[in-house]
Amino acid sequence: MAMKRVAASALRAFTSSGNSTSSLLTRRLHASPGSKKIVGVFYDAKEYAAKNPNFLGCTENALGIRQWLESQGHQYIVTSDKEGPHCELEKHIPDLHVLITTPFHPAYVTAERIKKAKNLQLLLTAGIGSDHVDLKAAADAGLTVAEVTGSNVVSVAEDELMRILILVRNFLPGHHQVISGDWNVAGIAYRAYDLEGKTVGTVGAGRIGRLLLQRLKPFNCNLLYHDRIKMDPELENQTGAKFEEDLDKMLPKCDIIVINMPLTEKTRGMFDKDRIAKLKKGVLIVNNARGAIMDTQAVVDGCSSGQIGGYSGDVWNPQPAPKDHPWRYMPNQAMTPHISGTTIDAQIRYAAGVKDMLDRYFKGEDFPPQHYIVKDGELASQYR
Amino acid sequence: MAMKRVAASALRAFTSSGNSTSSLLTRRLHASPGSKKIVGVFYDAKEYAAKNPNFLGCTENALGIRQWLESQGHQYIVTSDKEGPHCELEKHIPDLHVLITTPFHPAYVTAERIKKAKNLQLLLTAGIGSDHVDLKAAADAGLTVAEVTGSNVVSVAEDELMRILILVRNFLPGHHQVISGDWNVAGIAYRAYDLEGKTVGTVGAGRIGRLLLQRLKPFNCNLLYHDRIKMDPELENQTGAKFEEDLDKMLPKCDIIVINMPLTEKTRGMFDKDRIAKLKKGVLIVNNARGAIMDTQAVVDGCSSGQIGGYSGDVWNPQPAPKDHPWRYMPNQAMTPHISGTTIDAQIRYAAGVKDMLDRYFKGEDFPPQHYIVKDGELASQYR
């Protein structure tokens, strides 16, 4: 598609609310005046960086904020080199003030790194999902952690619906026939279905889960959701989705399960061998949330035995997925690298959100409240 | 997915209306009493036939009507061998009464074959789309041609939305990275977009086009449609789609174009070099209608130059597509064999529709009026 039209719909939300005079309780309280050292860890785009002026989320284009930061006297270091004791990130840990990371190429901010980062005040996630940060250690150290809530929820919900359709309709075997010179309709059709009439359950119905349910509504499915809290009745009516208080009562009803929860100590490994064994035979699973919510080997075994009829997602444990990650080679998978939340449209939105928060930080202003993941030593409710 | 649950939602519609006593104007007028010779041309399923009891659309399972036909004294021949002067189909042309064909493995019913088929009265399409029949020759010969209108419209509309998302979000390059051991988010993201906010135009807003528009509604796109006739205002309001009377004024506005027209002499080759040159640079095209609506080479050239940003569909010219069909090897394609209308759910519905029409034919009753493609020497309006 043409690229220029995207910019038109950018730069919304993210600048509302939070303009109060109350201070941020950071390690050093306010942003002290003067030059700050800001480090961003993104993925490298190399030859792709110049192919699209809106491709902001890579090291080369660095969220499009370099000139703005440097013109105010701040230092802005950007790298993709994030692993091991001799990486570029490690060099800057001792004296950086702000660290910008992203779920698509996660810099793991461990307790040890937090301890070394004596000047660190603010951790910003360009995107959604801050589980690559040791949030408890960040809270204990008095740091503020914030993400650009809402910046890519539409992107992820759209992607989930695409993956549901790819699995239900058995798209990939057909495409592989095409590129390998074959034509065998039967080899696709015997396990290709319509989505209509099937039971779809989302585990988690936060911002992304709700957008997914809205998009599923015209498909005439039987929609179920499990969450800590029931949706308000208006949204429940609008989507026709039915609340299931007991997760393990919902799951065996589902033809298709979509994971829409953050990764926390409670959700880690939640879909293990035992839970997968209790699902409907041939269930389809879509997981764009976090790879570590699944037991890696249990998913491989499920796909191999046919207990799982198809598995699609863009999240892995760890990321980047190593060449020998077994999800690359299991049957009936429709995996991609971590991509759903980093469309060009999403990049424009999360770059704008990061810039807005930096601006507020420099001015000593609060962020929009929904962006906080750790504030005043407390974790946001979804991470507790 | 589990297979048994599908049957529950099958067998609807298709049995309404049309129960009048008026006769079919066929070559021999009524079905004359006594044994009929019925020939069905389907794709072979081989080892897949036994994998799913609802896999009805293959030669092995033969729409599930063999026992029913034979118990009434009719002869039922089924084959996939449909090409050339010595094929199995050709042997039965001189004395068959009814020929059942399908768009997924089309038996081309030429004027010459019609001339040879002295006993032929009825041509039934198991599915939708009877362009593989020379409809004018059928009309001139006084034959009745009917398809199972509505049997797979939901199946195709769902599939179109899947293909839109696959192209917009640049799914396939990511999946190919996974299976080839790579990880390069930038190589996907630089041309991955959200569907939200984009302009989608459907060329044709009949049964399938309307179902697509309904499913697109929650994606917050700018929806356009071109058709011979404006939709009724209620449906227009419901989908928010805007009518475009002039096709060539609509097309250059579209980021995504979906083809939803039958193949007729007017639509054959409609998207040629000149028309493609006038589209928005990088336009995405989804075509599950018929391959011959496109100029084959113009699509290849468009994809190679970047004028077309992505092309996806399941229809080819001819079918099966030969091993050297250039659409198999052009860049940015997301093609499959002809599959969207032959999901298990669709097979159950079109098998039921064919059985219902045969039953009415034996009894000398009319079909549901929307099923007729050629009746009393006249073509249905969409084929004129």
From TrEMBL, chains A, B:
Task: Write down the position(s) of the site called Important for catalytic activity.
Answer: 290, 338
**NAD as UniProt keyword:** yes
Instruction: State the InterPro entries in the record.
Output: D-isomer_2_OHA_DH_cat_dom, D-isomer_DH_CS, D-isomer_DH_CS1, D-isomer_DH_NAD-bd, FDH_NAD-dep, NAD(P)-bd_dom_sf
List the keywords (alphabetical). Answer: Mitochondrion, NAD, Oxidoreductase
Domain D-isomer specific 2-hydroxyacid dehydrogenase catalytic intervals: 70-366
Question: Which EC number(s) does the record attach to this protein?
Answer: 1.17.1.9
**Span of domain D-isomer specific 2-hydroxyacid dehydrogenase NAD-binding:** 162-340
Instruction: Show the PROSITE patterns listed in the entry.
Output: D_2_HYDROXYACID_DH_1, D_2_HYDROXYACID_DH_2, D_2_HYDROXYACID_DH_3
A Pfam match is 2-Hacid_dh
Keyword Mitochondrion present in the record's keywords: the answer is yes
Protein's cellular compartments: Mitochondrion
Q: Where does NAD(+) bind?
A: 207-208, 227, 262-266, 288, 314, 338-341
Where are its TM segments located?
none
Which principal EC class is assigned to this enzyme? oxidoreductase
Q: Which reaction does it catalyse?
A: formate + NAD(+) = CO2 + NADH
Q: Where does substrate bind?
A: 128, 152
Protein function: Catalyzes the NAD(+)-dependent oxidation of formate to carbon dioxide. Involved in the cell stress response.
HAMAP family reported in the protein's UniProt record: Formate_dehydrogenase (MF_03210)
What the record says about family reads:
Belongs to the D-isomer specific 2-hydroxyacid dehydrogenase family. FDH subfamily.
Q: How does it assemble?
A: Homodimer.
| Name listed for the protein in its UniProt record | Formate dehydrogenase, mitochondrial
Q: Which gene encodes it?
A: LOC113722988
